[in-house]
Amino acid sequence: MTTDESVRTRGTVFDRDGSLVADYRLGNRSGRPAALDLRLHRLPAELAAPAILTALPGWVVSTGEETGAVLLAAGGRLFRHLHQYTRDLGPELGDTVWTEAGIEARPAAAVPPSALYDIWLAAYPPDHPDRAEHPNPQDVDDLYDGRTLGPLCGFSTVAVDEGRVVAAVLVNDAESLGPWISEVFRDPDPRYAGLGGRLLRHALGLAAADGLPSIGLAVTEGNPARKVYERLGFRHRASFMQVVLPGGERGDTMTPK
After folding, report:
1. More confident residue, 202 or 29
2. Does residue 81 surpass a pLDDT of 50?
3. Same structural domain for residues 18 and 75?
4. Which residue in 32, 45, 129, 244 has its CB near the most CB atoms, within 10 A?
């Protein structure tokens, strides 16, 4: 299975009797195969868990809080506890002209992903709640190439100060989620305080001008950026967990069952 195909493929889990237990979107998370948006069929989580654990050892499973809690109790490890938000896009977002003095806004596609590596790593220090999901710059390449969620949207934007990237908003066209803000980060230097939020609002304006009706994102439990998103008009829709199942080895490339 190629990487591009894996972004668009749904897998299934069956029990020993051949009955469908769950389906999911096949992806990857930090070098592990991932069952994204896992949905149960008929069975409650307690009864579905054994089949999921057998079919997907070592995988990252992204699912609702109730199923996630059952998988944790069965020996899984919490990878991320996420809250999903969406924002309706409209004319209230105003002019899309960038007015930040001394800092240039460029389309992300016009900037190589390698130019984001240093600032991306600096934005996620060891005590950051999202640090576990960001171990290496390869993740930036994967977002650019569409391997993680889907193709990079044209209104993804980076901020450049004197030739150096100091902030970025990356948006991907995720098949089951629609336009999805995959990354918002900035240089932690105090002189760039607030730049991430301003760049995000600019990207939202570009998305609205492009005719998009809405856009989504997920924020990790404990991330202070959650308040920024709420101030920018994002509304909470759901909460879910990403759980690393026991078994398997990091970097497995198992095919769905």
Report:
1. 202
2. yes
3. yes
4. 244
